[in-house]
Amino acid sequence: MSERRPLRLLGLHGYRQNERRFRERTGALRKALRGRAELVTLSAPHRVPDGDGDSDDDPRAWWFSGPGTFEAREEAAAPDGLDESLSAVAAALAEHGPFDGLLGFSQGAALAAMACALRAAGDGRFPVAFAVLVAGFASRAPAHAAFYRQPIALPTLHVVGRADAVIAPQLSWELARSFVEPVVLEHPGGHFVPAAAPQKKGYLDFLECFQPAQGQPRAQGAGAV
Predict the structure, then answer these.
(1) CB 8: neighbour CB atoms within 10 A?
(2) 3-state class of 147 per DSSP?
(3) Which end of the chain is more exposed for a tag (fewer CB within 10 A), N or C?
(4) Architecture of domain 7-211
């Protein structure tokens, strides 16, 4: 009997991160999932202007709530950049797949939730079976309200930090309630991707419900980790 290949997850980083930074900050998670899942990271298409002056840092965003800025709680009247980011995710899924699921952090988790909503509504650009959403939230922009009008029927694991001072826990719980039968994993920490023993068990228990998609991964372009 051939050995089952690991699940493949497309990783979507948080605001002001990029694929390299996300790889660096998910080392413990990747170790915890070794043999069960691999993470391939993708940089957002939009550069955050006037970052921190470090040209090597290359801060990125999936969309903006104001001109070159982002605030999760802002009810942005004219959010900008989301369509390009959804297209970038769809292109990565098509070009570097097959992928089994999405793993998003913070703004990346919010984007992954939107992709889940499109997937559940029949959008063939997002052929994933599940998502892991860490420190996620629902966009408050009225232009994005359609993503949450119907309960999203796709399996999700929502990871919520009880001490998260960036994305308050209630925002992540609010996003979880947008899904049908969400699984919620709480941890005592703040705004990061946790991977201690209790969280490792939570990830593995959730992932055990899924089988790898058929087919071999195509050539890598996004950051394989």
Answers:
(1) 20
(2) helix
(3) N
(4) 3-Layer(aba) Sandwich (3.40)
Residue ranges of the domains in the chain? 7-211
Where in the sequence numbering do the catalytic residues fall?
106, 164, 191
97 CB neighbour count, 10 Å cutoff: 18
Place of tokens 């998003």: 104
Within the chain, strands assigned E span: 7-12, 37-42, 46-47, 60-61, 101-105, 130-134, 156-161, 183-187, 223-224
Closest CA to 108 of 21, 208, 213: 21
H helix or E strand, kind and range, residue 116: helix 107-120
Can you give the pLDDT at residue 59? 95
pLDDT band for position 222 (cuts 50, 70, 90): low
